[in-house]
Amino acid sequence: MPTPPIKQLNHLNRRIINCRHCPRLVKWREKVARERVARFHDETYWGKPVAGFGDPNPRLLIVGLAPAAHGANRTGRMFTGDKSGEWLYGTLHKFQFASRPTSSSADDGLKLDDCYITAVVRCAPPANKPTRDEIGNCQPYLLDELKMFENLRVIVALGRIAFIWTIDSLEKLGIMGNDRHPEFTHGGRLQINERLSLITSYHPSQQNTFTGKLTHYMFDSIFRSARDLLS
Predict the structure, then answer these.
(1) pTM of the shown model
(2) What pLDDT band is residue 180 in, cutting at 50, 70 and 90?
(3) What string of DSSP letters covers the chain?
């Protein structure tokens, strides 16, 4: 399969970064960036939509929910600078998708191999709860990524909302080929077509990891499955 032109991906990411389609999200992300919290008081927040991050020709695509207010909204990179990112990048490193197990800033040298990370919403939402319309406004960006990454073999959806909207996007692109609406379960696997699989996981949010709903063993199993499928 051809490698997607870097210029095409860069153009998409510029569109994402400059997006102001959702007034509520624009107001919130900029308010958080302006007011900050005590522990990051001396830092300059990104405070804009967050583009995807990773290998421009991936076989593995990870779809999250949205940037965290003081994580990616602060650092400008997906899953960077928060507890969810510690879980995700630690696991990606364990299965050789990431060059290092930590992600603290956008310029920390971390690189992804054969893997790209995106989200269904690109701005930090209040209470981490985007509206359906806000997700719909962002969906064209996910659609463009799915079309662009022609070498995809595995998608990992982190959380129910990411799962629902990934399925919806695949249906819109005519990739699903049917009208199935499977239930979300941790560790579920759906064969989208002869070359593409979808794996579902609980999101590595503190709400899930602190309560034990998601354990390291459970999360490892997701990316072990992804690695096995790619092998």
Answers:
(1) 0.95
(2) low
(3) -PPPPHHHHHHHHHHHHT----HHHHHHHHHHHHH--GGGTTSPP--S----EE-SS-SEEEEES---TTTHHHHSSTT-SSHHHHHHHHHHHHTTSBSSS---STTS---BSSEEEEES--SPPGGG---HHHHHHHHHHHHHHHHH-TT--EEEEESHHHHHHHHHHHHHTT-S-S---PPP-TT-EEE-SSS-EEEEE----HHHHTTTSS-HHHHHHHHHHHHHHH-
Please give the pLDDT value at position 176. Answer: 79
pLDDT tens-digit profile of 144-174?
999 999 999 999 999 999 999 999 999 999 9
Give the pair of three-digit tokens for residue 131.
Answer: 């509206």
- Strands 189-191 vs 197-201: parallel, antiparallel or unpaired: antiparallel
pLDDT exceeds cutoff 70 at 181 = no
Fold of 6-230: Uracil-DNA Glycosylase, subunit E (3.40.470)
70-89 exposure pattern, b = at least 16 Cβ within 10 A, e = fewer: bbbbbbbbbbbbbebbbbbb
**Domain residue spans in the chain?**
6-230
